[in-house]
Amino acid sequence: xxxxxxxxxxxxxxxxxxxxxxxxxxxxxxxxxxxxxxxxxxxxxxxxxxxxxxxxxxxxxxxxxxxxxxxxxxxxxxxxxxxxxxxxxxxxxxxxxxxxxxxxxxxxxxxxxxxxxxxxxxxxxxxxxxxxxxxxxxxxxxxxxxxxxxxxxxxxxxxxxxxxxxxxxxxxxxxxxxxxxxxxxxxxxxxxxxxxxxxxxxxxxxxxxxxxxxxxxxxxxxxxxxxxxxxxxxxxxxxxxxxxxxxxxxxxxxxxxxxxxxxxxxxxxxxxxxxxxxxxxxxxxxxxxxxxxxxxxxxxxxxxxxxxxxxxxxxxxxxxxxxxxxxxxxxxxxxxxxxxxxxxxxxxxxxxxxxxxxxxxxxxxxxxxxxxxxxxxxxxxxxxxxxxxxxxxxxxxxxxxxxxxxxxxxxxxxxxxxxxxxxxxxxxxxxxxxxxxxxxxxxxxxxxxxxxxxxxxxxxxxxxxxxxxxxxxxxxxxx
Length: 479
Prior knowledge:
Keywords: Cell membrane, Membrane, Transmembrane, Transmembrane helix, Transport. InterPro entries: Glcn_transporter (IPR003474). GO terms for molecular function: gluconate transmembrane transporter activity. By secondary structure, the chain is mainly alpha-helical. It has a domain at 82-175 and 203-337. It has helices at residues 4-21, 26-40, 43-52, 57-65, 68-100, 102-114, 119-130, 136-154, 158-175, 180-189, 193-221, 234-241, 251-274, 283-296, 298-316, 325-354, 357-365, 372-387, 390-405, 415-424, 434-443, 447-475. The longest helix has 33 residues, at 68-100.
């Protein structure tokens, strides 16, 4: 009854059965799943979990003595701390860009450059390269409003555009530093950052190509129309789409809400890698780094982008007597629901982690007699599916395999093991994954639609990556 695998199975049954079978709201199903998982987890297991993470013995004991409600609320709050401001401001940016006509202006420019047929491919490649310096969820927040505007412009392919955005952002997040997971992985496995960036980009381009072909197939098999939502009424979007280009904001101004967060976050990432803490710099350079670091914080960067979006909307709605309040209210109503569901998913995933599921999986696979590359892939995939976090899967799998990666008798460079872990961490996103809920609610896909399109998309890309990595290790061992 206390076996982590059994507790995981019960949690899965409650969440999936509650949402799909009993038609419960995801927020309620996830909280119920978190409560049952927490109730089934013994205090000694929670203490061991905390100690394994490096928590001080006194703090680990205190955690194990906390009540179920407090532990769930803590994980709920931790998830809110990570994504609350991001989602709220991203909802405002998306609403402002749609209502001001900025998204429509960007889409018209993209279509002139690529043509209608190549628009999905442009979304795919853009989201991949955006996903390298920018957090995965930030890419979704910035790109989904553009997908809605693009769908209205071309009249079709909404699911294809959403899947292209998801494919690009997800693979960059797990393969190419400076994303957090790959950064930890290369440190643990002693892989040069430049090599990981180059190899991750190459493998990533193969995987997103496979993802693109899957997206084309899924779009034909399950075409999904753009739907009404609180923050993006179709009637309003259609009226904007009918405007002449001269009545829309300029392209440079339209791009500002998207470019400001990206530029600040990229600049912070670049300077952080270029100058290590403690190094002596000139006063000018020190001040520049301090300013970039301040604005490069993901929350401050997105707030700055939100201010630009609000100013853009204000300039387009000068004659509106009610001001910006109705638009912001609609955006926050939509964003608030996403925050609640995502945080509940974080609480459920947090309770699963406290069962010791990662350690159990590590123990089950330590004697696994497979080739190292598929084994690395398999361990990361099982951990990701079990507890929902790609970053935790990367950390767990790299911890298990770091000793093998530094083995002098290894027939290929450890970068291939790192890439295999990155691809494995994509399998399988479902209801214990905060990213699953973000993409569901931003795109207005139902849970069923997401499970049969987004989940298989990442499986296809992960498996493609495994094949490419094994071929690369055989043909170009780099040792």
